[in-house]
Amino acid sequence: MTVTETPASTKFAGIAQKLGNRSIVFVGLMGAGKTVIGRKVAEMLGLAFIDSDHEIETVSRMTVADLFSSYGEAEFRSLERRVIARLLKSGPRVVSTGGGAFVNAQTRRAVARRGISIWLKADLPTLMERVGRKSTRPLLNNQDPESVMRRLMDERYPLYAEADIVVHSRNEPKDVIAGEVVDALEQYLENDARAPREGTRRNGDAK
Question: Residue 205: what pLDDT?
Fold first, then answer.
């Protein structure tokens, strides 16, 4: 270890090296903290960070809300799938995805091939408290957003559970949650390196 190195910096460098060309992909419902935690993890590991929703808005020159309104959810999901597939071709990086992205089977397969998926799992009160701060959530633009959120949890949580790593998102400082993500990622990569190359379930014991 050189004079300028610390145990933390050595750890972060080791994780980034073990990623190879794979990206870290955050999945979960709106309000789970994918962008905030994703940015912090990217900063810790010295990787680029990209929010897929922001990339979609750049490509389309429209906001996500306007895309939903003008073209409907199906067309938005198709564009989302293509954008994420493109982002995954240039790793390693940290990518935060929209709440519905991982629901798409093609996107899940693309992430499995080119990334490591991390589900930020949050409970209903935490999600509702966070999404209440913004009025730009197309799926919650109705009279009973909590009922919609419950339905989305029922529909999507079984699919999010296919992620390689699960970290519980809660009202703690972002440094705490990001640290837990990095620790879980380090453990996952260690297990992945020890696992046989064939006949082993990809997400192993990372959950």
Answer: 41
**Preceding peptide of 7 cis, ω within 30°:** no
Phi, then psi, of 21 in degrees rounded to 5 = -95, 5
Partners of residue 117 on adjacent β-strands = 25
Report whether 19 contacts 189 (CB < 8 A): yes
Q: Please, what is the Cα angle at 193 between 191 and 195, to 5 degrees?
A: 65
pTM score, two decimals? Answer: 0.86
Assess contact for 30 and 127: CB atoms under 8 A: yes
Nearest alpha-carbon partner for 103 in 59, 154, 141: 154
Question: Is the distance from CB of 151 to CB of 160 less than 8 angstroms?
Answer: no
**Residue 5 pLDDT greater than 60, yes or no:** no
CB count, 10 Å around CB of 102?
23
- Segments of 94-195 assigned E as strands: 94-96, 115-121, 165-168
Region of residue 184 (phi > 0: left; psi between -120 and 50: alpha; otherwise: beta): alpha
Please write the tens of the pLDDT for every residue from 157-178.
999 999 999 999 999 999 999 9
